[in-house]
Fold:
Amino acid sequence: MKKMNFAEFGGPDVLQLIDAEEPHAGPGQIRIAVRAAGVNPVDWRIREGQVLGAHPTELPSGVGLDAAGVVDEVGEGVEGVEVGDRVFGEGSSTYAEFAVLSAWARMPEGLSFEEAAGYPSLMETALRIIREVGVQPGQTLLVSGASGGVGSAVLQIARDRGITVIGTAGAANQDYLRSLGALATTYGEGWVERVRRLGRVDAALDLAGSGVIRELVELTGVPQKVVSIADLGAPDLGVRFSGVAGSMPDALAEAADLISRGKLHMPIEKSYSLAEAAAAHIDSQAGHTRGRRVIVV
Structure:
């Protein structure tokens, strides 16, 4: 089978499309014929060799955590899923023609493989950080870097829960944020005052790592009401850095429920072939994504 691989840590140029042996489902796992794989910032962070406790890496290594496809092998002890089912979920080395998943859910009716592949990690992250920041229905949540995949999910989950969201993004994404129910404003000089004019901030999320932790603490009043997934220096200012995943099965179940109720939709910014994985990483690292990027297999 074809699989994206890297034998050393480094830039996008270390990625190589190789011929590899097919993986097989172990106990509690399933294997899928991959139709699409989600592209996440964690993918290129792992490729660069960043220290990520939740994702220890041995070289050579495959790439990718999220995927959607068709079940073609069911491991020992697995119930409730059969060969031929369409599923989305999380596993390892998902930039490949076949991948093993350790968490999955059936795809809701009408959902494409490309759309489904974009949901697992971002939904787990969005649900986790909303929980960790402690924002409640009726309160206002500020999201810095709101137009990407996690931000798009946060906005829609918050709207479903009765939480008001103020989102910051580039000028080109203002209408997009408003379409997801957010009060929108731009980055740049004077952004703190623009946020204040939109309303009181009860809690804040840093999704972009753009050096705004001090301002987010200023707006919320206390560092305990700010969570970052992108600024490794956040703990130096008393702010929680969230990098340890919660329950993926729960996240997939909630994603399927929201999608089925028409409360969650994730646009695809761009699709890439397996051979274009390096370009996908370059684009992901550049930021300014609206929704998701996916690898189509």
